[in-house]
Amino acid sequence: MVEKNNLTGLSSAEAKARLEKYGKNELIPQKKESILKKIFHIITEPMFLLLIAAAVIYFLLGQPGDGAIMLIFVVAIISIDVIQELKTDKTIKALQDLSAPHISVIRDGQETLIESAYLVPGDLMLLFEGVKIPADGVIVRCNDLCVDESLLTGEAEGVWKSENASDEATDYWQKNWCYAGTLVTQGTATVEVLKTGALTEYGKIGQHIATTENEDTPLQKQTDKLVQICAIIAGLLLLMVAFFTYMNVADHPFKERLIESILSGITLAMAMIPEEFPVILTVFLSMGAWRLAKKNALIRRLPSVETLGAVSVLCVDKTGTITMNQMTLQETWTPDLSESNLIEYMGMACETDAYDPMEKAMLLFCEQHGFSKESLFSGRLLTEYPFTNELKMMGHVWEKNGHIIITAKGSPERIIRQCNLADEKQVEVEEKVDQMAQEGLRVIAVATYFPVDENDIPGKITDCRFSFEGLVGLVDPPREGISKDIALCNQAGIRVVMITGDNGVTAASIAKKIGMQKSDSHLTGAMIDEMSDETLRQQVKNISIFSRVIPEHKMRIVDAFRSNGEIVAMTGDGVNDAPALKKADIGIAMGKRGSEVSREAADMILMDDNFTTIVETVKDGRRLYDNIKKAIGYVFAIHVPIAFSALLAPILGIIPTSLLLLPIHIVLLELVIDPTCSVVLERQPAESNVMKRPPRKADAKILDAAVLTKSLFQGFVIFLAAFGSYCFLLNVNPDNAALARSMGLTVIMFSNLFLVQVNSSSYDSLFTSIRRLAKDRVMWGANFLMIIFILIILYTPLNSFLKLSPLTANQLLTALALSALAVLWIEPVKLILRQLSKNQTN
Q1: How far apart are CA 285 and CA 290, in angstroms?
Q2: What's the pLDDT at 156?
Q3: 333 by DSSP, 3-state: which?
Q4: How many CB atoms within 10 Å of residue 726?
Q5: DSSP state of 696
Q6: What are phi and psi of 409, to 5 degrees?
Q7: Over the stretch 240-277, which tens digit does the pLDDT of each residue have?
Q8: Whole-prediction pTM value?
Q9: Reduced DSSP (H G I as helix, E B as strand, rest coil) percent helix, strand, coil of the chain, to 5
């Protein structure tokens, strides 16, 4: 045990040694997946099983060269996928490190902030309101420490802690101990850590929590279903193609006929399965989260990235989110004009060690008017009445100059209710409150009570019969640029809702200044208490300001919006905000002033507590969803000509050796498609109209009718160009299938280049997209490598292994022209759609 007066903590060297001895403070040690396991997982995917099967068949056909080339390309694709997975894992690990819980400790005699995972026995951890305790330990010293231990004991009532040893030695849960997983609701403490990780009381009962499997997100479920449907169709068509191929080579020996028919079927199946879909989700979501982290928005749960773009209601606190949280006391008012007494009593009602911006502003005002902290707090503080969300007031009991005085401050509604005011005087005070609130001031009432002696001090603040002293008005100016952000939300169909503990008139005044919609009226917490859930659901449709609310009200408000079909994002920073943050579709915790509990409950942490950052994350969420949709549409479109070519050739009676696409060519195209998805399309910037359209529906399909129709049309036109040119050259020279194949394959690859460019935006023109990406070296580098890749497979000795033949300059230019015609037809269609959209807007 450490001495109470010798709080130097562990040295860095001691902490390092104990970490090696006891291990990290984790319920279950995190195990890193090995590369071999990753490779095995990739190989067992249907596409790779088909590739390996095709290679084996080449060996059985007595073509070991073709089989070896197939295996080389299989290794290349697996390598690309492994590298991609490693990069994704690295990104996710970096995000986890950024959002890891932290705790203040004393080490080397100084207070320092460390990750909770690196806490070791012997550490001195510093606890305060809002901290989720990360380890078991004994209290060295504490001040008004109350802990919620319901997670362990099931008892809802807070436990008041003491640094003295428990008198009840038989109690399992000790009053002089703090336990991992519990929550500090009030006070401060210094605690010596004795148990960490699985050895804590929480660790003994909570290990199953760490092993809970994550449920697939809606997007993952959609894409998995798409892959399954494609796989089933591929299986059926495989049998059909195998049958036609078997009939086409009737003059071949039975064994050869069987193997060649299976090979043709496998080629089609490979062409039909869009194995890129899972890669798209993993890469896009992780990279999207990383990009948001660079913009001060830390995503704690990857599925939240896809939900951001669907947010339709944004519930935010007024103070610190919409306003700057920089209070200035602007006005005072007293019924009898005794301003000096008002200022002194206001100061005495503040905390002696103020941390709240409002109290700091009050004490600064006191100092400017001759009341220093030393003079204000020169008496003896006998007791205090803490502020609660329910009471919305607080008080201090002082013994000063031989007299006892209770000074209180809080919301005018609650203070006035406990004052002995005549009716006409109460009307005067209430009118003044409304006047100050309409000016956008945060109004605080101040009152006093003089007990006869210590025995006359009420046990509760609600038992005091106060004398009204006056009002003070504080101004907290709106953040710079907030009006522009609100206008952007209005334009994007996102309704901004203000939920505040402040006066409704004050909130409405600020809401009008910044341009919030539906800000003419407001609901108070008291009104909500009187409403049924159905009534509240109807009310929230037309009201955007909720005042004098407590955390329980926030949950009901969120529930009401969600019941109306809205996708709700909500901000919170307090201990009691955690349930509402969990209830919202997107819970947003404040990174600067938020409690540890609110951060753990949230889906996203706002590192700069700035409303602008919220708007930017919604915009980026829309961009990400758009890009996922583009990538899936692109994959679908590029697979159409591949699948149709593999399907139609055997039906037309073309023999296996003359087919447009053999398994090796499917592999070549996969080498092109994967990087296109994960590198090029992921980087696409937001559409110019991304914040000029309403949010997508929560149940919107990633591959809806519009995207599917567009992809099918695009893919089918590319198929006609590729397969038509292939058939033409094969008809001209039936003995040179390699030349015909080169032509068809080149058309598909050039079309792929154009397809990426035109599909980089569903709204803007090709030229706008190119201009927007003019400085993107990665994008242009990928396009350049694609052209080099085409030239290598056509004009190097590799072409003979790939069963291709060099194209003449005219043939190459013809392939380029055909590809352009096959893809760029969509540009006039986009122009028409843009014009229609503008007409609807006007």
Answers
A1: 9
A2: 63
A3: strand
A4: 28
A5: P
A6: -145, 155
A7: 777 777 776 666 666 666 766 777 777 667 666 666 77
A8: 0.75
A9: 55, 15, 30
